[in-house]
Design a protein that fits this description.
Alpha-Beta Plaits; Inhibitor I9 domain-containing protein; about 130 residues; about 20% strand; 4 strands; 4-stranded antiparallel β-sheet; alpha+beta
Length: about 130
């Protein structure tokens, strides 16, 4: 009899973890900037809200891309991501993946000194102009 409460807690924690594990970070790309950019972003938000409730949409979106591209990042189920990707106004939906950095010494990699100054170049030292 003492085993039953432990089993219920274990099963409920497993199911709860499984539900949270099903959501992944997706980037919804709507396109580059144009005169219709803001309108397209608003329409895609409306489409996302139609796929689920407005509250879920507000909770799911964690970043909006508005400076260089139009789109947003959200925690979505695979089914919702597929539904959004089927919208004619959405260019693509892809899983947001982490990338490993290739260097931890960026300043040295770029040829900069520790203080951030660009090293002096010897280019043009022997250059002379002659008037003809």
């Amino acid at each position: 009899m003492n085993f039953l409460p432990f089993l219920l807690i274990l099963v409920s924690s497993f199911l709860q973890g499984h539900v949270f594990a099903a959501k992944k970070s997706y980037v919804v790309y709507i396109g580059g900037h144009s005169n219709q950019a803001g309108r397209l972003l608003a329409q895609s938000d409306e489409h996302f809200e139609m796929s689920c409730s407005k509250e879920l949409a507000n909770d799911a979106i964690f970043y909006s891309y508005t400076r260089h591209i139009n789109g947003f990042a959200a925690m979505l189920d695979e089914e919702v991501a597929l539904a959004i990707s089927n919208s004619p106004k959405v260019i693509s939906v892809f899983e947001n993946k982490r990338h490993k950095l290739h260097t931890t010494r960026s300043w040295q990699f770029l040829g900069l000194e520790r203080d951030g100054e660009i090293p002096r170049s010897r280019c043009g030292e022997r250059l002379s102009l002659e008037k003809t």
